[in-house]
Amino acid sequence: MHAAPMYIAETAPSQIRGQLISLKEFFIVFGMLVGYTVGSLLIETVAGWRYMYGVSAPLAVIMGIGMWWLPSSPRWILLCAIQGKGELQGLREKAICCLCQLRGAAIGDSASRQVDDILSELSQLSEEKEATIGEMLQGKCLKALTIGAGLILFQQITGQPSVLYYAAKIFQDAGFSAAADATRASVFLALLKLIMTAVAVVVIDKLGRRPLLLGGVSGIAMSLFLLGSYYTFLGDVPAVAVTALLLYVGCYQLSFGPIGWLMISEIFPLRVRGRGLSITVLVNFGANALVAFAFSPLQDLLGAGTVFFIFGGIAVLSLVFIFFIIPETKGLTLEEIEAKYL
């Protein structure tokens, strides 16, 4: 969850970094679609979940074997060189070799120049020693942590776990009474997620991060208020709930879904990137668990409508956070992002 976007961010050309990291989200959603589809086919099969896990196992083995051929991140190699963890010239040559493996013939004769540029930028940014835990709470590291962890926190506490985990129940409340019907409706939901993620992949490096976040989160807020209205005032109009659910999913996959992971892979300085991403992933799953476990008790205490209104209010707060705190990183190298915004 944290190594994949970090690796992609460090190895991708800046012009298509957003597309490549968004493709990670696209294939996660594609896997969800396959899982929902297989699940809908096995819904009436006794112990059908075992077949789902059985099909997944060989895919994990193939992925594990394939990872043996992944070249190291050139930026990580050069960071090791600056930190004195090896002979500079030898590590420089290794970084050039890895960059050629990653970019292929398209890089031509520019690999050596690109490596020297990265090495020069890292030296100017004083990346010569490893950061301590204390440094994560100071200066530019704290600013990066505020941007990354704050975005991931809002990604979760705007209700994403509740809306998606309870999608089947929402479909049932909206008239898809049979469990099989609700499960098959979830397949359609996953297909929508896939389509909207594909749209994000296409436009993210053209429009930029901030426009997609501001537009998508505005749609999320609107959908949450619609869900709140359905459970409070409009219980006899199930189309409102279905429309709100589809709007939420579509807007989430245009904004928080891919861009949350993209931003946290871009914003941290190189020497704290691994630690920074680990902290934000911890925030992600901690907030995810909190929202998922708290939804049912809050629903019993306040009612589903009130809970969704609260999520909608948090979505409005997240818009304020995005507008004032989140920078635009489109087209910038990782070193330029650090120099300009941290």
Q: How is this structure best described in words?
A:
This protein is mostly helical and 342 residues long. The protein folds into 2 domains: 74-127, no CATH class; 133-341, Growth Hormone, Chain: A. Helix content is 78%, strand content 0%. It contains 16 helices and no strands. α5 (88-103) packs across α6 (111-124).
Question: Characteristics of this structure?
Answer:
single chain; 342 residues; mainly alpha; Growth Hormone, Chain: A; 2 domains; 16 helices; sugar transport; Sugar/inositol_transpt; transmembrane helix; transmembrane
Helices and strands in order, then pairings?
Blueprint: H1 3-11, H2 17-41, H3 48-66, H4 74-82, H5 88-103, H6 111-124, H7 139-157, H8 160-165, H9 167-173, H10 179-207, H11 209-232, H12 238-254, H13 256-267, H14 273-302, H15 304-325, H16 334-341
Domain Major facilitator superfamily (MFS) profile: 1-330
Subcellular location: Membrane
InterPro entries: MFS_dom, MFS_sugar_transport-like, MFS_Sugar_Transporter, MFS_trans_sf, Sugar/inositol_transpt, Sugar_transporter_CS
